[in-house]
Amino acid sequence: MNPSSLAVHCQNVVKIYDTGDQKVTALNGVNLDIALGELMMLVGPSGCGKTTLISVIAGILDQDSGYCEVFGEDLLNMSNQHKLNFRARNIGFVFQAFNLLPALSAAENVSVPLIINGMKRNDAERKAVAVLEQVGLGARATALPSELSGGQQQRVAIARALIHSPRLIVCDEPTSALDHETGHNVMTLLKDVALHNDRALVIVTHDARIFDFADRIAEMDDGHIVEVKGVGVQASPASTSKACTPVAAKP
Amino acid sequence: MNHIAIKMLMGDRGKYLGIVMGLTFASLIMTQQPAIFLGLMSRSYSFISDVGLPDIWVMDEKVQFVDDIKPLQDTELYRVRGVSGVEWAMPMYKGLLKARLADGTFQTCNVVGLDDATLIGGPPVMLEGRLEDLRRSDGVIVDIDGARDKLGKPSPMSGGKPIALKVGDSLELNDRRAIVVGIAKVTRTFQSQPVVYTTYSRAKNYAPKERKLLSFVLVKAKPGQDLAELTRRIRATTGLAAYTREEFMSLTYEYFMRNTGIPINFGISVLLGFIVGAAIAGQTFYNFTLENLRQFGVLKAMGTSNWTLLRMILLQAVLVGTIGYGLGVGLTALFGYSMRHTILAFKFPWQLLLFSGAGVSLICVFAALISILKVIRLEPAIVFKG
């Protein structure tokens, strides 16, 4: 793959957690490329290293060894300030538990990345309302997260992840707390609104119902990428073991 | 990010009120208890501060505080008058005498005898009658608090409030008749005994017969006279102790500080208030931060720097600190105001505001510090944990 067309390039990435009593190898030489314009899903059993891998890719966790480049930038060797600025500008997050700030309204929550990037509060909130309209929540801009349904909260979280036009959107189980229809809608939204040719989407999921949306699926087990499959390919048994939901075949 | 910090703080009403209440309590204790302490201590020298005219107080060299009377011979007055630099010197009697009340009970009074001719050393404010009325036969002036309360006539109703002494009423001082010719306002004394003013010669009649009855010599320095130099000269010439007004007040204040348990008792109250306030506010603020750790983690993951998070936490601490401090100080002021007509001692100088302000700031810094450490050490990857 041409390096300039890559959003993420990971080579032999190792991450070991030292818990004092024992050392746990979460990533054991991971190699992964994610192309621009690609929606990559990471699947695998619980504890296989998916969350650690997206944490490294998102620049919120340093690997112990190996190389991880995001949009051509080596995150490990960046200064803290540079990495903060890089994250603020280039990474959007969508979490399983939404992680909205409960005291802020939907619009205020969505405006947070812009404020972190230095935009004035009023301008940021104005833009937030516009993005909320894009995700179909313009009328609920002043509602608190507690006043929104799970699907609505996830849409607010997606609006928050998109508002500053990041080039990489990292999603951790974005649909697992949602029913089938809402999960489908959220994925449609993510794919339609978030994905462009200059962007990439990485989604960690156990939810077989959304595998259809992936361009490629990387199966992980025991800190490795076991297999990367294109659309329409049956997942291997490794991804279906333990706590992992079986991967369905593409229609 | 400031508005986010404020919204995070106020979004959790219960915690927010808990922190503010803790700080209000600490601030209240740290101002109210010292205010009572200062009020009490200022009463220790209130008799001196009420006597405005003289520059120097002369007394026996063994006197340790204002109520520690060690009488002098009357001739000492003339020796003091003979010291160069003395404009005038007047005698003053001060002693505790028993007054017999209308119902037959006795009340100890602080009897003050003033120079018969000049009446120097009299009460600062006359409410009824005039100071000169002391020259009338058997005349005494009684302080308003004593007249209303301890020297008051018994109420006709059982358990009722005493009837205040009025001008023209009489009482017995050491079996001698005294007629009230005036009511004065004086600062309450430490023992809160009624103060009865009369002339020096009459006070000597009221007092039990002793060879020496002169308590103090009140001295006015000649214009331009250096007071420190004059006190030295009086000491050297007469062998007596001589203090400026401020020195005598300080001597009395320090005696009470050293020889009574009051500073320790109030100190313990203030310290307990500080510890309890710090514990409540610190713990609640820390819990608040812990519960918001994931939110701080989200902000950190999205690119917020530790410095910005630190500013947010400090802002939250300053906000709750200011509100708690304001409420505590306000409640203390309200307490002092509502107690202004009671026997309670209360003094609320601006220095006390600084003291309690510093105390509350310390609590807030402590609470913020332990929270900040937690947030700074926070791994943003926490946001992906379920």
Structure description:
The complex is a heterodimer of chains A (251) and B (386). In chain A, helix 3 (106-116) packs across helix 4 (121-134), helix 3 (106-116) packs parallel to helix 5 and helix 5 (150-162) runs parallel beside helix 6 (180-194). Chain A has a 6-stranded mixed sheet with strand order 6-7-8-3-9-10. A 4-stranded antiparallel sheet of chain A has the order 2-1-4-5, covered by helices on one side. Chain A is built from 6 helices and 10 strands; from the N terminus they run E-E-E-H-E-E-H-E-H-H-H-E-H-E-E-E. Chain A has helices at residues 50-57, 80-90, 106-116, 121-134, 150-162, 180-194, and strands at 6-18, 23-35, 39-43, 65-70, 73-74, 91-94, 168-172, 200-204, 216-221, 224-230. Chain A starts with 5 loop residues before the first strand and ends in a 21-residue tail after the last strand. Chain A has a single domain (3-240), classed as P-loop containing nucleotide triphosphate hydrolases (Rossmann fold). The mean pLDDT of chain B is 86. In chain B, strand 6 (170-173) and strand 7 (176-185) form a beta hairpin. In chain B, helix 2 (13-44) packs antiparallel against helix 9 (262-291), helix 2 packs antiparallel against helix 12 and helix 9 (262-291) runs parallel beside helix 12. Chain B has helices at 2-11, 13-44, 46-50, 75-81, 144-148, 200-206, 227-238, 245-259, 262-291, 293-301, 306-338, 350-376, and strands at residues 56-59, 86-100, 106-114, 125-128, 139-143, 170-173, 176-185, 195-199, 216-221, 241-244. Chain B has 2 domains: 2-43 and 261-384, no CATH class; 73-239, no CATH class. With 386 residues, chain B is of the alpha+beta class. Chain B has a 6-stranded mixed beta barrel with strand order 2-3-8-5-7-6. Classes of the chains: A alpha/beta (251), B alpha+beta (386). At the A-B interface, helix 1, helix 2 and helix 3 of A face helix 1 and helix 10 of B.
